[in-house]
Design a protein that fits this description.
single chain, alpha+beta, conserved putative lor/sdh protein from methanococcus maripaludis s2 fold, Elongation Factor Tu (Ef-tu), domain 3, 6-stranded mixed β-sheet, 6-stranded antiparallel barrel
Amino acid sequence: MIAAVLHNKALRRRLVAGSIAVLACGAAMVWHGTRSEASSTKPAAPETKLVKAVAVVPSSNADTRSAIGEIRPRLESDLGFRVSGKIVERVAEIGATVKKGEVLARVDDQDYRNRLASAEADVAAAEAVLVEAKAAEARIGALLAKGFTTRANHDATLKNLRSAEAKLKSANIAFAMAKDQLGYTELRAEFDGIVTATGAESGQSVNVGQMVVRVADPENRDAVFSIAEAAFANTPDTRHPPKVTVSLLSNPAITAIGTVREIAPMADAATRTFQVKVSLENAPAEMRFGSSVAGRAEIASKSVVVLPGSALFDKDGQPAVWVVTASSAVELKPVTVARYETDRVVVSDGLAKGDLVVTAGVNRLREHEKVRILEGGIK
């Protein structure tokens, strides 16, 4: 019985040893297979991204500008008296048509008539003194020639003669001034026009230069617009201003062609806009003073590139686009944007003809990354 027990123990030891050997062999085979599989696996190639691109074709882009303004007279004068006084009559009324030289208003002229009469009397007195001085000089001159008087006496009479001549000249100037001032008591139109405003009434005392009547020339009219500073960013040479089409807001069918004749050198303090005056050619009668109008001008700018808005990328806060190089890699190019539109951007600088600009998927790209242009993706 002891022999049987010993035999069973030996048998179990052999079975355990065989199991360990089998496990070791299996582990070795698994390790060897894993190493072989790992050694045969190669690194995956980087993904080539598909993009859409557009070929750059610079073109001359006409920039259309529009604004709202009003009709104003080109020539409009505030007329006032050149002398002060009390208005005794104002003939002109708002809307009246006046002719050049026509009397518009009068001030009381009694004082100026008196001044004219006084100046006239001074002239007469100066003429009498001159006659006397001439006679005295003639007598003393004759005596000096005969040796009956001294040269000092002759010099004195000659001095009186020159003084009398000067006084007469001064009196004549004063008389002319008094006559002119009497004429200034009547306010006359400087040109043919329409009265657009009045500043004083009969019985009112006015000072020199105070506006009494405003007269405008109805034949020459301007369309006046207030333009923002940004509109002058790409303004062409002012020596060749663009033509402007002006139309009535109330009736767009009524139009006139004009030319920019004046741009204010300084912005308005309140609105920060610049006043632009457009001279109208053969303005229709319906374009009355004060009428609201719309102005439209097409300004030809330098060659620009128009891109979809999706092509624009941001680089350090500045606009840029991705450009596909000859090696099919992408590079980021800074560009200058002339203006932004609803669904596109107008680039004025930074791109050359023939450049391939990525228009879709710009946010997934990295510098010098390889890309593949989608078939049919170049426009």
